Amino acid sequence: MRLANLTWPQAEKVLAQDPVVIFPIGTAEQHGRHLPLGTDMIAPEYIADRIEAMEPDVLILPSWSYGQCDSQTEFPGTISLGPQLLYEVIYKVFSGLMKHGARRFIALNGHGPNTGPIERAALELSRRGASLACLNWWRYVWDINHEWRGGHAGGQETAAILAIRPEDVDVSAYEPARMRGISPEMPASGWDNVRYKGVNIPVPRLDVDVTDNGWLGPDPLETATPEWGREMLEAAAVWAVDFIGAFRKAEF
């Protein structure tokens, strides 16, 4: 059920029953030259829709489309709240619902750097007797099927958007991932790392200085198919419904 569709007396009754509350969270952020800026919101919203179809008693909040992506703002269209403001938003949303009886919260997250603010809010809510689980959809599906592992805007996320909104994928803009190091002796080995003599060393930089086209990962774009996306997203939703059933019985 959707909080936005309830009257306040209806919401009062639902919240008093301590429902599992899902907050879909994403960001407006560059996803290579081929994917839309809303990629990290499109996938969680789709999974939330599938969860609602299978588990209608879950309370789903209006989505939040702005996240923490300070390292990406050199790419046009990326909007970042930063970690502090995002933490405050998440904490205020859930603590407001706690006043009326809710204590079991899920952040259905589509963006990696949102995780820190979500986990910070979870600790604060825990001190008050609530529990907040962070479900990073792209990450937990790796454990469901290791072949689905992906990077940022790579084949994994591209497959998801091909399954949900194929018209928003610019296949003509596919190009290889490119990583730029900081010297010939120190090539990049990820967004935040360089490798020197076999050792990975964190050297955080602006993302545009790491890759000029905005995507990195082990999953080439050409591997993405709508079939992969549909199978992966359905598996994500089914697993989440199972998790919700167990989360209802958790003691804290």
Descriptive notes:
- This protein has 252 residues and is α/β, with parallel strands linked by helices.
- It has 8 helices and 6 strands.
- It has a 4-stranded parallel beta sheet, sandwiched between helices.
- Helix 2 links the parallel strand 1 and strand 2.
- It is globular and about 60 Å long.
- The model has no long low-confidence stretch (mean pLDDT 97).
Characteristics:
8 helices; globular; 252 residues; alpha/beta; 4-stranded parallel sheet; 40% helix
In short:
By secondary structure, the protein is an alpha/beta fold. It contains eight helices and six strands; from the N terminus they run H-E-H-E-H-E-H-E-H-H-E-E-H-H.
Instruction: Summarize the main sheet.
Output: 4 strands, parallel
Question: Can you count the beta strands?
Answer: 6
Low-confidence stretches: none
Q: Approximately what portion of the residues adopt beta-strand conformation?
A: 5-15%
Structural class by helix and strand composition:
alpha/beta
Morphology call: globular
Mean pLDDT: 97
Question: Order of strands across the biggest sheet?
Answer: 2-1-3-4
The helical percent reads: 25-40%
- What is the N-to-C order of secondary-structure elements (H for helix, E for strand)? HEHEHEHEHHEEHH
Radius of gyration computed on alpha carbons: 19 Å
The number of helical elements comes to: 8
Terminal residue distance: 25 Å
List the helices and strands and how they pair.
Layout: H1 8-16, E1 20-25, H2 39-54, E2 59-60, H3 82-98, E3 104-109, H4 115-127, E4 131-136, H5 137-144, H6 155-164, E5 193-196, E6 199-202, H7 207-210, H8 226-248
